[in-house]
TrEMBL record:
Signal peptide: none annotated. InterPro entries: RutC-like_sf (IPR035959), YjgF/YER057c/UK114 (IPR006175). Gene3D superfamilies: RutC-like (3.30.1330.40). Keywords: Initiation factor, Protein biosynthesis. GO terms for molecular function: translation initiation factor activity. Pfam families: Ribonuc_L-PSP. This is YigF family translation initiation factor.
Length: 149
C-alpha cells in the first residue's frame, strides 16, 4: 500500500491521521476532496465553483496515482443542500469524457469546515478506461446479454 500526494492538493492538517490517496495494486482510493484551504473556501459559497475545485483535486490525485480520471469507477458525493445537485452534476460533466463512474449522492447536515457545500470521494482501477468493454444489458428473466456500443 502506497500513500500518494499531489503538490497542488493540500495535505491533511494533521499528517498521519489520514491520507489523501492510497494505491493498492492497481486500485486507488481518494479521501473526500473539497474546496477548503488555509485561506478559506475556494469558490466562496458557490457550490458549482466548490465542485470544480474538488474535482480538480480529484483529477490531480488520480494522476498522481498513475491513473486517468476516466479510470475512476466509483464516486461518492456529499452535499449540504440537495438543491445544488445540478451545479455538482454540471461540474462532473466537465470532468469525465467516457462513461460516468458509478455514483452515490447524499445530502448531509454539514461538512468538516463551515462554508463547505460539497465533498467528493473517488476510487478506481489504474488502466480501467483502456479496458472498458461495451455496455452490457442483462434482460431480467431472459438469460441473454445484449450489447450496444
Amino acid at each position: 500500500m502506497t500513500r500518494v500526494g499531489a503538490e497542488t492538493v493540500p495535505e491533511p492538517p494533521r499528517p498521519g491521521m489520514f491520507s489523501n490517496a492510497r494505491v493498492v495494486g492497481d486500485r486507488f482510493f481518494l479521501s473526500g476532496m473539497h474546496a477548503g484551504s488555509p485561506d478559506g473556501v475556494v469558490g466562496g459559497d458557490d457550490t458549482y465553483l466548490q465542485a470544480v475545485e474538488a474535482f480538480r483535486r480529484v483529477r490531480e490525485l488520480t494522476e498522481a496515482c498513475g491513473a486517468h480520471v476516466d479510470d475512476i469507477v466509483v464516486l461518492r458525493l456529499y452535499l449540504t443542500d440537495i438543491a445544488d445537485k445540478g451545479d455538482v452534476g454540471r461540474a462532473r460533466g466537465e470532468v469525465f469524457t467516457g462513461d460516468f463512474p458509478c455514483s452515490t449522492l447524499v445530502e448531509v447536515s454539514a461538512l468538516v469546515d463551515p462554508g463547505l457545500t460539497v465533498e467528493i470521494e473517488a476510487e478506481g482501477i489504474v488502466g480501467a478506461s483502456a479496458r472498458r468493454l461495451p455496455f452490457m444489458h442483462r434482460s431480467v428473466g431472459v438469460g441473454s446479454d445484449v450489447t450496444s456500443g
